[in-house]
Amino acid sequence: MLVLSLVLFGSCHKQSSTHKITGKAKDTIDLPQIRERGKLVAVTDYNSTNYFIYRGQPMGYQFELLQQLADHLGIKLEVIVSNSLEEAFDKLNNGECDLIAENLTVTTKRKTFVDFTTPHSQTRQVLVQRKPENYVSMTARQIDEGVIRNQLDLAEKTIYVQQNSAYAQRLYNLQEEIGDSINVKEVPDETEELIAKVADGEINYTVCDENVAMVNATYYPNIDIQTAISFPQKIAWGVRKGSPELKEEIDDWLVKFKRTKRYALLYNKYFRNQKSASIVSSDYFAINSGKISAYDKYIKKASAEIGWDWRLLASMIYQESRFNPQVRSWAGAYGLMQLMPNTAARFGVDDDSPPSANIYAGVQFIKWLEKRFEGKIKDSTQRIKFVLAAYNAGYGHVLDAQRLAAKYGKNPNVWDNNVDFFMKNKSKPKYYQDPVVKYGYCRGNQPYNYVNEIIDRYDHYKNIIAER
To answer: Catalytic site residues?
Structure first.
């Protein structure tokens, strides 16, 4: 399953001297074991570029890179979110994940406890400062004269940076280089929070990586990011020592993938796209707003009736309609919940009913389905998957898949790796022509994918959006 610190690189630049690796993976976990498991587990952070939810859809540079890697490996992807790099290293060392998919600066110290993949990008650290107040009417030369361009001029300046970050270490090193003191203030704020404070005039200076600065400059036009304070640095992923086959496979894939047009488009999408400003300022940029859709309040109220996490119901509605209440399917289903006319009428709504009523009717249908499964399927997580499949394909087709599971020695009351197989394969004559089948042919890959995609998206929502 797919499961990126409001900062792209800053939280990933903490120095190795602060990492206390407390555990040790008990068993060898390398590429063969990962393939056998059927999924790659990666830990990453969330922010406005690496991994986020926008209009209900998971997005991000790291997220899409990981998707491409998982597709290359032919296995599923599970993403664990952590904005603490120390915690991420612990999870890697303890065997809880296989890969740290963050923007790790490659350093000699870090190489003692983690193996780096081939770099996926490069960056350099830059000073973030405000342009002069009347910068709009200034020439580029006049702006240069009103800001810091020479690193020597950082002497005696107060610069706020995320604590335990490579930015702090770079400033301490820079003090030695310029032979003067810099007042370095290490604070718990994420780097993008500090950039916002510079833009708002709360502080005068911070430091971040150039890529993240470029993105932030699209929605804070009054910040200047042209003054570099470091040389270019390699940015890579981290794998556990003792996983040489995984590292080799990722290295080979990255070298080839970085040469493709797809990678160029991916990089430009997140680091050079001028639409970044509109995304981050949107009311549906979930990191800032906590919102998934315009209908969250109705979804929260309706989900309480069936005891579902509202984020699960939101994921289902996204799957049905992309939160577009006007959409209508080729079969005649309509509204946010894509109810068929007969089902909608049964629960008292029609195509003139408001979105809130459509959600309510859809939930009543879910409640009806749950009652048919709850007596036999005690596990609520499994029961939800049966309900989702029945909502999509019909209750009768799910009953058929259960009967097939029982006939072939599988558990008819467990969806994962049991009933889901027969649901997926109900388009094959061997199964839909079986005597135990009462409802005939079903294009079973649709409900199979429907369930997986909803649960997958729900995992993303849980990573980023609060439960209440």
So the answer is: 320
